[in-house]
């Protein structure tokens, strides 16, 4: 406990907490924003303005005239001497917070709560954001992240505001990203619990968790920051404005991705904790530091929503990567299984299945796996343990159904009853329809639309549960979601297959819709849906499509037969589906999407491609590869622990299309030779993502003889200007570069000047003087390390340009 927590009134400002700041000058932290026009003391136009940590603006003269020069500590003249957080208030608040955080529901299960400290497993949190988390579907991110060699030093969640030894900056706002179910909420709860129990971060006087899910419900209301805290934390109702203004407070805003608030950073300035405004404005002002400039702010978000916070307001970006190391995964399962032999069996099973091992980086998936495998090993079920994702999720559904029966004390065997099926299909319809619209959060109205009554949903606790449960009267509107996007995708796939299988029996309207959308055989539905998924740029339907394929497997049809309806697929058709997948045309489709074909085959238990590629990699690699083999190879190279020295597409004996399917392997190689491969914008997007990823391995990129005109160049530049980019050699011979693409190139290089050593621009006759001029700008940059710039002099049209170029080349110290 710090000295500020004594019972006696302490001065409002100590020299530590005094935040006396001129409007200009102090660049250590965010400015509290422009000052209001008048001084809060004399009421006249502000002269030589200064602000206090409580947010008041005064003329410097007014401030100094009110201060007692003999005192070493000073208070804000407007607030008067404040009170530090009273120890009784703090300790009662801590015990309320401790109670709230010490036990957690896993997944989103209601009822069964577990001690957080018992199950909490250290997560891998790193500084910075990798490219994957910002652009790809979460399921693919898991795979990419899972193979990353662990270079970046992890940060404990408790140290999220502590600068690293090499950093000399104050960290006021932290933005932590991570895919769904990776442990963001668990991290903030653990942080709060450790603080409340007095074991970590005791220099903070107050930790105030505010989830966006809750804030959504009051987004129409006007509050002051102080009343907002009172509303969400009634045990702090004694907290006064002065105390709040003078305490060291941390606000934790969890789940920005769920926010329905519009965070507008260009609007009004609020500087006082008692000033009323919209909730979104209170947050904006807290984040930009106008309101309570000394408060710390921790925001968590899924990647896609993180850009709502301007980067200039964030002092540290971090990423929760889940359980990256085998040790973390093992630790998680050891905590879950008390019987060490059972645990060994489970761990060795996960290691042997590629899909399960990749997915087990995500804690929520570990929970699903542990739930299923625990149930299976305990009940000594005969038969193999689930191998594929579809298999695992099918068992998960059955386990949860049995649990539901236990809660509702229904008695019946392990099979699905008609009532179970009806409920699950309603959930499936909700999942399917909302997935098509890209929604992951649902309200009562959405549930009613599919005929789901609320008691059903809450009884079905493991699958779809009332996730918003607070006793306060203002929180009477509930929000629902599936415990993980993958569960929504799985139920959506079940519903889709069911609709097809049962088309002759019921629901003619849906049948009609399905018929309109797709042709009538399941085989064709699978092709159509796969093609539809190719068009989603972030792979939103990838996992859904994988599950669709997996559900056609006989073993899964058997498990979920009651739900899926009479199977319309026999082994002959299944073989045709496999063949269709192998010869699927993916022209103009991102090669990342094509890789999903390979995953669909895995879900169908067809490992032939995998085997063929294993053999190919062991051979002299001269064998001709089909296009689907190329996708499989790209995937395997990308996931390999070893970074490939060289990826030369021309060295592979395959078609033009096959070569393009290999492009994703660029994410895991040092030297990429893409000469004359007809790369299009979608392929350059993959190359750019390789340059942006963390860590980025690519050092040499040869794009000779590909058309890199304006829009393609923009995509490439996006990668070149990433702080993660480490490219040393860039070859752009015969790339049809225009003056404007050269400008984009020069400004991208200028914004990130220190990595490139060699740039070859031969045979781009359209560059002309203005292109050269832009390059000169880059060359003059002090951090530019380029020592070889091929052929640029030949593009100078005027003698003047030639002279300026040669003089820049001669004077630059690096050449
Ligand atoms: N550190 C951890 N130790 C043990 N289990 C964990 C940990 N982190 C997460 N889990 C498991 O994963 C589940 C999901 O975690 P959490 O809710 O924190 O994810 P999230 O990143 O906030 O997801 P979302 O973006 O969907 O809100 C938890 O309910 C728990 O079962």
The percentage of residues in β strands lies in: 5-15%
Whole-angstrom Rg: 30 Å
Q: Give me the side-by-side strand order of the main sheet.
A: 6-13-7-12-10-8
Q: How confident overall, as mean pLDDT?
A: 80
Helix content class: 40-55%
As residue ranges, the low-confidence spans are 1-33, 68-74, 131-151, 466-474
Gap between N and C termini, in Å?
58 Å
**What coarse outline follows from CA principal-axis ratios?**
flat
**Largest sheet: number of strands, sense, barrel closure:** 6 strands, mixed
Total beta-strand segments: 22
User: Structural class of the secondary structure composition?
Assistant: alpha/beta
Pfam families: FISNA (PF14484), NACHT (PF05729), NLRC4_HD2 (PF17776), WHD_NOD2 (PF17779)
Keywords: ATP-binding, Cytoplasm, Leucine-rich repeat, Metal-binding, Nucleotide-binding, Repeat, Zinc, Zinc-finger
GO molecular function, one term: ATP binding
Subcellular location: Cytoplasm
């Amino acid at each position: 406990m710090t000295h500020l927590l004594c019972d006696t009134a302490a001065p409002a400002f100590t020299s530590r907490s005094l935040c006396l700041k001129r409007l200009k000058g102090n660049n250590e932290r965010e400015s509290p924003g422009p000052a209001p026009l008048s001084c809060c003391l004399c009421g006249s136009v502000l002269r030589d303005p200064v602000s206090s940590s409580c947010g008041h603006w005064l003329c410097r003269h007014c401030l100094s005239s009110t201060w007692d020069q003999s005192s070493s500590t000073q208070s804000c003249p407007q607030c008067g001497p404040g009170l530090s957080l009273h120890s009784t208030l703090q300790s009662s608040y801590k015990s309320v917070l401790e109670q709230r955080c010490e036990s957690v529901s896993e997944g989103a299960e209601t009822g069964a709560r577990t001690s957080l400290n018992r199950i909490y497993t250290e997560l891998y949190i790193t500084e910075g954001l990798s490219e994957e988390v910002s652009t790809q579907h979460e399921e693919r991110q898991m795979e990419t992240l899972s193979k990353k060699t662990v270079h970046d030093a992890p940060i404990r969640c408790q140290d999220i505001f502590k600068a690293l030894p090499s950093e000399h900056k104050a960290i006021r706002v932290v933005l932590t990203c991570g895919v769904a179910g990776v442990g963001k909420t668990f991290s903030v709860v653990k942080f709060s619990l450790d603080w409340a129990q007095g074991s970590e971060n005791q220099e903070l006087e107050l930790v105030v968790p505010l989830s966006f899910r809750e804030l959504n419900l009051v987004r129409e209301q006007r509050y002051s920051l102080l009343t907002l805290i009172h509303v969400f934390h009634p045990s702090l109702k004694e907290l006064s404005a002065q105390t709040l203004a003078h305490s060291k407070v941390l606000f934790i805003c969890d789940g920005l991705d769920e926010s329905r608030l519009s965070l507008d950073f260009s609007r009004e300035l609020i500087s006082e904790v008692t000033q009323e405004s919209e909730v979104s404005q209170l947050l904006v002002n807290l984040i930009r530091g106008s309101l309570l400039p000394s408060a710390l702010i921790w925001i968590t978000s899924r990647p896609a929503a993180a850009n709502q916070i301007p980067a200039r307001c964030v002092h540290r970006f971090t990423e929760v990567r889940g359980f990256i190391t085998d040790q973390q995964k093992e630790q998680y399962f050891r905590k879950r299984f008390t019987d060490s032999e059972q645990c060994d069996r489970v761990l060795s099973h996960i290691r042997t299945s590629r899909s399960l091992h990749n997915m087990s980086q995500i804690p929520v998936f570990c929970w699903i796996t542990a739930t299923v495998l625990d149930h299976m090993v305990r009940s000594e079920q005969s038969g193999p343990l689930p191998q594929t994702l579809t298999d695992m999720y099918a068992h998960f559904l059955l386990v949860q159904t049995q649990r539901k029966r236990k809660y509702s004390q229904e008695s019946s065997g392990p099979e699905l009853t008609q009532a179970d099926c009806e409920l699950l299909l309603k959930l499936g319809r909700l999942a399917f329809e909302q997935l098509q619209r890209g929604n992951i959060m649902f309200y009562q109205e959405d549930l009613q639309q599919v005929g789901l009554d609320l008691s059903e949903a809450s009884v079905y606790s493991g699958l779809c549960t009332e996730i918003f449960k607070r006793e306060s009267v203002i929180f009477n509107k509930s929000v629902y979601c599936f415990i993980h996007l993958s569960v929504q995708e799985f139920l959506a796939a079940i519903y889709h297959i069911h609709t097809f299988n049962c088309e002759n029996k019921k629901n003619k309207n849906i049948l009609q819709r399905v018929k309109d959308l797709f042709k009538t055989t399941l085989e064709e539905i699978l092709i159509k849906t796969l093609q539809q998924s190719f068009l989603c740029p972030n792979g939103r339907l990838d996992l859904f499509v994988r599950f669709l394929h997996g559900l056609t497997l006989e073993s899964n049809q058997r498990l979920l037969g009651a739900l899926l309806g009479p199977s319309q697929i026999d082994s002959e058709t299944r073989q045709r589906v496999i063949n269709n997948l192998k010869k699927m045309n993916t022209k103009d489709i991102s090669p990342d999407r094509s890789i999903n074909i390979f995953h669909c085959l895995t879900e169908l238990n067809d490992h032939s491609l995998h085997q063929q590629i294993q053999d190919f990699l062991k051979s002299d690699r001269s064998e001709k590869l089909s296009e689907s083999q190329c996708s499989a190879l790209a995937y395997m190279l990308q996931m390999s622990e070893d970074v490939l020295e060289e990826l030369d597409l021309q060295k592979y004996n395959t078609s033009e299309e096959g070569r393009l399917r290999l492009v994703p392997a660029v994410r895991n190689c040092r030297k990429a030779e893409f000469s004359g491969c007809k790369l299009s914008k979608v392929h350059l997007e993959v190359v750019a993502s390789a340059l942006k990823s963390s860590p980025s391995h690519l050092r040499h990129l040869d794009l000779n003889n590909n058309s890199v005109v304006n829009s393609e160049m923009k995509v490439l530049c996006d990668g070149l200007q990433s702080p993660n980019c480490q490219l040393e050699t860039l070859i752009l011979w015969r790339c049809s570069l225009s003056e404007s693409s050269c400008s984009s190139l020069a400004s991208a290089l200028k914004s990130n000047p220190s990595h490139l050593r060699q740039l070859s621009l031969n045979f781009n006759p359209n560059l002309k003087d203005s292109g050269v001029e832009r390059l000169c700008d880059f060359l003059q940059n002090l951090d530019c390390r380029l020592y070889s710039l091929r052929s640029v002099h030949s593009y100078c049209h005027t003698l003047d340009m030639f002279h300026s170029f040669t003089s820049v080349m001669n004077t630059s110290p690096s050449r």
